[in-house]
Amino acid sequence: MFVLGKGGAGKTTATVALGMAARRMNKRTLLVEIGDSDALGGLCLNRTLSETPEKISLSLWGARVHPKSELEAYIRAHVGSGFIARKIIRSRLFSYLIDATPGLKEVMSLARIWRWEQAKNEQTGNRFDLIIVDAPATGHAMSLLRLPDQLIRMIRVGPIANQIRDLQRLLKNPQKTCLVLVTLPEELPVNEAMEFYSMAEDELEMPVALTLLNCVYPSFFTKNEINQIDFLKDGLEKNSVTPFSVILDAVLRLIRRRTIQQKYIDLIRAKTLGRMKEMPFYFTNDLTLDDIDALSHHLTHPAFISS
Predict the structure, then answer these.
(1) Which of 91, 197, 240, 253 shows a CA-CA span of 20 to 30 A to 52?
(2) Mean of pLDDT values over 150-158
(3) CA torsion angle 175 172 21 51 (round to 10)
(4) Distance CA 1, CA 24 (A)
(5) What are phi and psi of 279, to 5 degrees?
(6) Where is 211: in which H helix or E strand?
(7) Dihedral sign of CA atoms 232, 233, 239, 244 in order
(8) Cα–Cα distance, 43 to 4 (Å, whole number)
(9) SS (H, E, C) 73-141
(10) Rounded to whole angstroms, how far apart are CA atoms 145 and 230?
(11) What is the largest CA-CA distance in the chain?
(12) Are 236 and 159 in contact, with CB atoms under 8 Å apart?
């Protein structure tokens, strides 16, 4: 499960919340961090995740993909001589190669995820029931997921091409892989989300299975109650400040904010045909794991967690 979205939309929070939802359903779940961010490790363990899956809590693990380490392991595995492999890895050219070769870091990251998906456990079969990837921001994530198709067009034969085809089959299998898009109920993020739906289906052949609409303000009042609140507002003296007027002003601000958001909520709901979940707005900049666990109860989605 690749969790994508515009920077700041709440991808990492959604990744952890989805992991907690899966954990409650007894799914052995691995949370994966790729890219340069340490947000997932900082949130779950207050430190950078290791490159080997480590336990976060019951049935929940976390790991970080380090492309350079993956390339080093690949060279050791495929260069017959250990001496030559060490010389390659320690050379200055090796560092230049990693930084300068387009797509190399991305394909190493995908290959690592593919190997975790293939990992077996003597007692239970697959080591993990579910792998949730905190992917880079949407543009970089698109480049990441396009890469296998591009490489197959470039490298048509040989063992590397065969390995990339295995990876491509995993990514394009809707029974094995899905996309989760995180967005906000605001004009620009929603417009980008609408564009992404078409790109994911047409270019990636990986339709979005679920959209998480983050930071949704609560809807406390019925239409009739809102009319009564407007009536109370009209009855107040202008420029008078009383405890009642302060409370009423706060209520009106909440109603206006939800009204603005509702237009975008309706757009996403119509486009996704019900494959959307709302994540409520939390009035804090520092969500705790307990807060995210509470959020996770909103996200149980039988289409891909309980199947």
Answers:
(1) 91
(2) 78
(3) 130
(4) 17
(5) -110, 120
(6) strand 208-216
(7) positive
(8) 18
(9) HHHHHHCCCHHHHHHHHHCHHHHHHHHHCCCHHHHHHHHHHHHHHHCEECCCEECCCEEEEECCCHHHH
(10) 50
(11) 87
(12) no
**Choices 3.40.50.300, 1.20.1250.20, 3.20.20.80, 3.40.50.80: CATH for 2-218+272-296:** 3.40.50.300
Nearest to 3 by CA among 187, 211, 205, 293: 211
Tokens of 269: 């709901």
Side chain identity at residue 291, one-letter code = D
Supply angle C-alpha 18, 19, 21, rounded to 5.
65
Helices (H), the chain: 11-24, 39-45, 67-78, 82-90, 92-100, 104-118, 138-154, 159-171, 187-199, 223-235, 243-272, 289-296
d(CA 137, CA 131): 18
CB atoms under 10 Å from CB of 5, counted, come to: 27
Distance CA 197, CA 83 (A): 48
What does the pLDDT look like over 203-237, one tens digit per residue? 888 989 999 999 999 888 888 988 888 888 777 76
What residue segments make up the domains of the chain, in order of their start? 2-218+272-296
Assign residue 247 a region (left: φ > 0; alpha: ψ between -120 and 50; beta: otherwise): alpha
Judging by beta carbons within 10 Å of its beta carbon (0-12, 13-18, 19+), is residue 186 exposed, middle or buried? middle
pLDDT band at 244, cuts 50/70/90? confident
CA distances to 104, 106, 284 from 144, rounded to whole Å, are 10, 6, 32
Identify residue 301 by its one-letter amino acid code.
Answer: H
Tell me the CA distances in angstroms from 52 to 70, 115, 181, one per residue in order. Answer: 11, 12, 26
Task: Look at residue 305 in the predicted model and tell me its pLDDT.
Answer: 46
Order of all β-strands in the sheet with 130-134: 54-57, 60-64, 29-33, 130-134, 2-5, 179-183, 208-216, 276-280
